[in-house]
Amino acid sequence: MCGIGRNVDPDSHRSRIIRRINVSDEKHFLIDFQKAEVFADGLRNEVALAFDRHGILWGVENGVDNLYHSDLGGDIHNDNPPGELNRFPESLAGLHWGYPVCWTEYKLPSSVARGRGTQWSWPSFGVTDKICREERIPSELAMQANSAPLGITFYNYTSTHP
Question: Which of 44, 104, 108, 141 has the fewest Cβ atoms surrounding its Cβ within 10 A?
């Protein structure tokens, strides 16, 4: 995972989970991350990654700051976009979760709200809400904006260890 370069980047090239990089040759350790296999794209600051007991990768993501969208209530940054819980099954490898062109709803004014977890287009990218909803992967869970989730742990229940 690279990291974001600013609050909202112009594209997603720094907002990916990559895999399968050969680091065995320490003399040539300068790695061109743009040539690595992209496992998941469009993730803004996926700060915690963990595998569940089924081998599925999960992560938590911190949303952008200062979201202003005139069509949706103006200054909506106190509740949007949220922190996200994302799931990355192998079947979705290489797909795009939306950042920076899309963001997820947590809480909008009732006159425009479509429900927590709805994908919206970022005002300045020229992408439609429809593209964000139909061609991007939504998060599994939207958390209050600015809550800054930083970790993820799975509890492995067994009958002897409830």
Answer: 141
